[in-house]
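My hope is that you will study the record closing this message with an eye to the fold:
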Amino acid sequence: MQRKGIKRRPMADAVLASLEPELKEYRELDGDGLYFRVKPDGGKSWQLRYKTATGKWSWIGLGGYPDISGALARKKATELRHSIRNGIDPIAQRRTSEANQEATQASLFKNVAEDWLPHKSGKAYLINPSSKYGPT
């Protein structure tokens, strides 16, 4: 479907699925700052436009379509708008969450490496190449 043919907002999932890519990326307003983005390669996703505490406009992605349906995107957008009204910047919150997750992952790798290294640094392992590389 061409985007000129959209008559109702919020858009139904059938309309979202039928939107065709164009030469340039475009966004269709679904309502209350929630946009549906269509890329030239056919990728589709949801974005919310909001004003930060400093007064600048910003975008935050809510997820790709069809993984995130229209109803779920609207629900997420409502929750984010509520957080924004309470003074929470969703992008800063997401970055903090990702940093904590990376620190946890690094810690897990460190623990596994510390357990593995003494086992592999024994003399038998270093002297006998077949134990390291397998039989030749």
About this structure: The longest helix spans residues 90-120. DSSP finds five helices and four strands in the chain. The first strand starts at residue 26 and ends at 31.
